[in-house]
Amino acid sequence: LIHGGRTPNNELSSSLYMLNVDNRGCNRKVTLKCQEKELVGELPEARYGHTLSVVHSRGKTACVLFGGRSYMPPSERTTENWNCMVDCPPQIYLIDLEFGCCSAHTLPELTDGQSFHLALTREDCVYFLGGHIASTDCRPPRLFRLRVELLLGSPLLSCEILNDGLSITSAIAT
Asked: What are phi and psi of 74, to 5 degrees?
């Protein structure tokens, strides 16, 4: 899955793409097929520096989008700050890949937007570690655990602030 990012002409994208591996045939050639997924509902704005994670709960699967940066809202732009970037609001977006439905969720534990953090997923939990806050230009040593229960009807999200976070940005975990 790929969501958003910067385009070659320095614009931001809000598209969601699904990559699939097609390795049919006897020549063992692997082909990647990329398909744009249409989304409906409360759509996340175009952004970069965010994370997109996949959670599994009660036999269902959903994507969790969090964080990132975007251009300043048009109403606040002037000639001097036209290309200024700001952190996106600290909302969690749940995306149902089967139907393309998006929903936005605000949690009291997530008070600041953040970018370039690390997200690790285990079953129904996503752990957000580190990151950078543009408004204060800091890299707080934060660690959050977001639990997503995919119930019939509406999902249930809960967030817990854990001790012993790390002050990191742009990390890759394997």
From this structure: -55, -35
Rounded (5°) CA angle 37-39-41: 170
45-58 burial code (b ≥16 CB/10 A, e <16): ebbbbbbbbebebe
Provide the number of structural domains found in the chain: 1
In a domain, 82, yes or no: yes
CATH of the domain at 133: 2.120.10.80
Query: Which pLDDT tens digits describe the chain residue by residue (174 residues)?
Result: 888 888 888 788 888 888 888 777 666 777 788 888 899 999 999 999 999 999 999 999 999 999 999 988 778 878 777 778 889 999 999 999 888 899 999 999 998 889 999 999 999 999 999 889 988 888 888 889 999 999 888 899 999 998 776 777 777 776
Q: Is residue 17 one of the residues assigned to a domain?
A: no
Whether residue 11 lies inside any domain: the answer is no
Examine residue 153 and state whether it is found in any structural domain, yes or no.
Answer: yes
